[in-house]
Specification:
Helix 10 packs across helix 14. Strands 1, 4, 5, 6, 7, 8, 9, 10, 11, 12 and 13 form an 11-stranded mixed β-sheet that branches. Strands 17-20-24-23-22-26 form a 6-stranded antiparallel beta barrel. It is built from 28 helices and 41 strands. It has about 900 residues and is an alpha+beta fold. Helix content is about 40%, strand content about 25%.
Length: about 900
């Protein structure tokens, strides 16, 4: 009664294996990137960047040079391939084992082989494993062939473009840690392709040979080449190990399924998509089913970590993923919000490993549903826009590919739907032109989301070399004229940007604040004679060059043109939240003590987030005290001023600095021009800060703290709202309380007493119902004798079976315990209307019985799934009679 390992079991086995090798198991870090080099966590090693660079390997007080994780990663550079190929995902799990100056190649290679081939772990056939190594890495070749014993014909040597990290680092850079790598492939056999391992050496592509593991050996410090171009690779002070095993890839091998979408995590979601849409799933041709399933898993995970759909930065990517899922749901015929109904399946399949999915389930469902509703409204706008375009054309004409692409990019309008509507007008669509516009946009977008390991360590910026720092005037002006000094996309300088394209624009002078200090980058628009572009985000390089992410809506933008930058109205809300963050920090230090130190922040138009050092949850009284202090500053309407001064003078004046932040000799100090009282002591606010702020505290308006939660050992996170966002939140809560009170025939003031009374009634009713269910179960079992059960000998065990009507969940498990005691059987199989429970005695387990394996077969016969321990297992079923009827063949 054995079957292939589930994805969850593979994940757990990996972590257990490396724990047995004295690795410290750390939980997955958030999908929100731990550093500003990327929007999301894109690799298992990214959270350990500092340790790879030499920082002490100490985690929550525990020192360990060996670490293992199951890290959730997000990459969207090739999002258009998700659902269309077997191997592209926007979210994947990277199993990693890392060494910070401890073990090196030999142990990494031996342990990877042991985990994959040992019957105790994955039990793969070693003859089906193949490896690639760097062309000069004789040490790795020796470990693989002489110690592991792999056939030398199973080893390919490749150059630095394939088997060096970062790729081509010796010649191309960047400077810093680098080293060779060795990749492990599994031969899936001729049913997945008729190519050979020798063919892979030529093509570097295969459906048959699947890469499942990458062992990276960072051992060199790449420095500036010699004048003649000779690479300079010096040995690092200590050698590291960074390895990654793709969990979804290994699961597809172990479960022998053709692709990720057929594994035990994705298939139930796809089946639900088919049920909701009424469209059957037919494998690779059912692209829309696959896109919806993959994207809802991805979005569920990132929203659980705190990301929300928006028009900028990380939120823009979340919205892009979710709206792509919405488009494909629409193509499946779903005209009402439906994707949110899939979120519980994601939590069910992955919630054990990532409990934040279950903890935030209502929030994720609400976020997805709201975005679906918004998308459907936007889609209606696209229909109206398309109608205007088509009525302006004669029958038999062709709609331009660029118009079709703008409908897709602006309104999320699928080109298939555009073609369908156009046909009703007797008009065709220039599909080749659409494909060209889409490819151009993808190439440009790919440059903005190129997540390679080189970028994690400060990849080169050749396209920006030689540019002077941008003149920033945004503290005083929200509109400013400037010259276009560079257009950059795909790592290259561009000559022009046509309508519908997206790239990075560098201006000589800008009013747009660049993301920094926790404050999001400004959005807005660029205007010029004959054209306009939308600024979606603003960042800057360490050299002070401001980078504007711009989508060209109309006209053409060229280098040297004069443009006007106009910051969006969101800046005012951002300024309110930023100044409120300063006041919040001062209030927290006053109420909780000087031990409060800032650990991070987010300042956006819709909210603020503040992370700080503190060892306990805030009490209701402490939260109220903090809110009161901030409100006192707001009511006093103090002026907010800023000035530049030497850092020594700023610190001497008592300005608060971010711990660990590197400041120059001259700093910008933001000061609130008045104190408030707390417990008889004056409280002030003065911080080193380069962000945008209101001019008076009264401009902040209302202020309310939404939540206080733990995000790491000794680190708390407060989320809050200011201004109109705070007022709207309070008004919605008051309206909600009024609606709830009306439903309970009371007033808002009497709501608490009314709910308390109803809870008492419900508790009493539940107690009565539990007693009734117990009596019902006992009656159906023969009045406490178990005589109603059918008992028979199966597989050498005495098995008692019974179906109970109206009994489920805990009551079904309790009834199974009683039946096992009463019947004298070795195993009992008890079915409810929708549930199944199997229990076995200790003696039966000793003799080989396994409840979890048995229930898996019974559940499969009834269209369900289940599992559990050898002594107890349970499953959900759709046909209990079919499950019981499969007993004879299950043994």
């Amino acid at each position: 009664m054995t079957g292939p390992l589930s994805t969850a079991e593979i994940r757990e086995k990996y972590l257990q294996f490396f724990q047995s090798k004295r690795h410290l198991h750390l939980p997955s870090y958030s999908t929100i990137a731990p550093d500003p080099t990327t929007l999301f966590t894109v690799a298992g090693m990214q959270p350990f960047k500092e340790q790879f660079m030499g920082a002490p390997a100490v985690f929550d007080g525990t020192a360990s040079k060996r670490v293992t994780t199951a890290q959730k990663c997000v990459r969207v550079g090739d999002i258009e391939n998700v659902g269309r190929t077997r191997r592209h995902l926007s979210l994947f799990e990277m199993m990693g084992n890392f060494s910070f100056g401890d073990y090196f190649k030999k142990d990494a290679i031996h342990w990877a082989w042991e985990f994959l081939t040992s019957p105790e772990w994955m039990g793969m056939d070693g003859s089906k494993l193949y490896v690639t190594i760097y062309e000069d890495d004789d040490e790795a070749f020796m470990h693989w062939t002489q110690e592991i014993g792999i056939d030398p014909s199973h080893v390919h040597r490749f150059g630095a473009d394939e088997n060096f990290w970062p790729a081509d680092a010796p010649k191309e850079g960047p400077n810093g840690p680098c080293g060779p790598c060795s990749e492990i492939f599994y031969d899936r056999g001729p049913k997945y392709g008729d190519d050979s391992w020798a063919d892979y050496a030529e093509t570097r592509e295969s459906a048959r040979f699947l890469e499942i593991w990458n062992l990276v050996f960072p051992q060199f410090d790449r420095q500036e080449p010699l004048p003649d171009g000779t690479p300079v690779l010096k040995n690092l002070p200590f050698k590291n190990i960074d390895t990654g095993m793709g969990l979804e890839r290994v699961a597809s091998v172990v479960q022998d399924v053709p692709d990720f979408y057929s594994n035990d995590v994705f298939l139930p979601i796809i089946q639900k998509v088919a049920e909701l849409s009424g469209q059957p799933y037919e494998g690779e041709v059912s692209v829309s089913h696959r896109v919806v399933a993959e994207h809802i898993r991805s979005v569920s995970m990132v929203v659980a970590d705190g990301s929300v759909p928006s028009n900028t930065g990380r939120g823009y990517v979340v919205r892009k993923i979710l709206r792509r899922a919405c488009r494909h749901a629409y193509l499946l015929g779903l005209r009402e919000p439906s994707l949110y109904k899939l979120v519980p399946l994601v939590a069910e399949r992955m919630g054990d490993a990532y409990p934040e999915l279950r903890e935030n389930l209502p929030k994720i469902e609400a976020t997805v549903k709201a975005e679906e509703e918004s998308f459907l409204r936007t889609l209606e706008g696209g229909i109206q826009r398309l109608g205007k375009l088509l009525t302006g054309l004669e029958k038999g004409a062709t709609l331009s590919g660029n118009d079709a692409f703008i409908l897709y990019d602006t309104y999320g309008f699928p080109v298939d739907l555009t073609k369908e509507i156009a046909e009703e007008y007797g008009i065709s669509v220039d599909e080749a032109g659409y494909a060209e516009s889409l490819e151009n946009a993808q190439n440009l977008a790919r440059a903005g989301s190129k997540y390679g390991k080189s970028e994690l360590f400060g990849g080169n910026q050749e396209a920006l070399d030689g540019l002077s720092p941008t003149e920033f005037v945004g503290y005083d002006h929200l509109q400013a004229d400037g010259e276009v000094v560079a257009l950059v996309g795909a790592g290259e300088r561009l000559e022009h940007l046509p309508a519908g394209s997206e790239a990075t624009v560098v201006l000589s002078r800008t009013p747009f604040y660049a993301e920094g200090g926790g404050e999001v980058g400004d959005t807005g628009r660029l205007e010029w004679d004959g054209g306009m572009g939308v600024v979606r985000d603003t960042r800057k390089t360490p050299q002070g060059v401001f980078l504007h992410d711009v989508l060209i809506e109309s006209g053409e933008l060229k280098e040297g043109m004069s443009v006007r930058g106009v910051v969006s109205g969101e800046r005012q809300a951002i300024q309110r939240h930023h100044t409120a963050t300063h006041l919040l920090q001062s209030a927290l230090r006053a109420v909780l003590g000087s031990g409060v130190q800032q650990k991070g922040s987010l300042v956006a138009a819709d909210r603020l987030r503040f992370d700080f050092s503190h060892g306990a949850a805030l009490s209701a009284e402490e939260i109220a005290a903090v809110e009161t202090l901030v409100s006192r500053w707001v009511s006093a309407n103090f002026p907010v001023t800023w000035q530049e001064m030497p850092i020594a003078e700023a610190k001497a004046a008592g300005a608060t600095a971010l711990f660990g932040e590197k400041y120059g000799e001259t700093v910008r100090v933001v000061r609130v021009g008045g104190n408030v009282d707390y417990a008889g002591q004056p409280v002030s606010s003065m911080e080193l800060c380069g962000g945008a702020h209101v001019t008076r505290t009264g401009d902040i308006g209302a202020f309310v703290i939404l939540s206080d939660e733990n995000v790491a050992a000794g680190v708390r996170r407060v989320e809050a709202l200011a201004g109109e966002q705070a007022t709207a939140w309070v008004r919605e809560r008051l309206s909600g309380a009024a609606r709830a009170a009306a439903l309970l025939n009371t007033s808002p003031d009497g709501l608490e007493a009314r709910v308390t009374g109803l809870q008492a009634q419900l508790k009493a009713a539940d107690k009565d119902m539990a007693a009734v269910r117990r009596q019902l179960a006992e009656a159906q079992m023969g009045g406490g004798t178990g005589s109603a059960a059918q008992t028979r000998d199966l597989g050498g065990f005495k098995v008692a079976t019974l179906k109970l009507a109206g009994i489920e969940g805990n009551d079904l498990r309790a009834a199974a315990d009683k039946l096992l005691d009463q019947s004298g059987a070795d195993m009992v199989v008890l079915a409810g209307d929708k549930g199944l429970v199997v229990k076995a005695t200790k003696d039966a387990v000793t003799r080989g019985a396994h409840a979890g394996q048995l229930i898996g077969k019974l559940a499969a016969a009834s269209g369900g799934k289940g599992g559990g321990r050898p002594d107890m297992a349970q499953a959900g079923v759709t046909d209990a009679d079919a499950a019981l009827g499969a007993l004879e063949t299950a043994f």
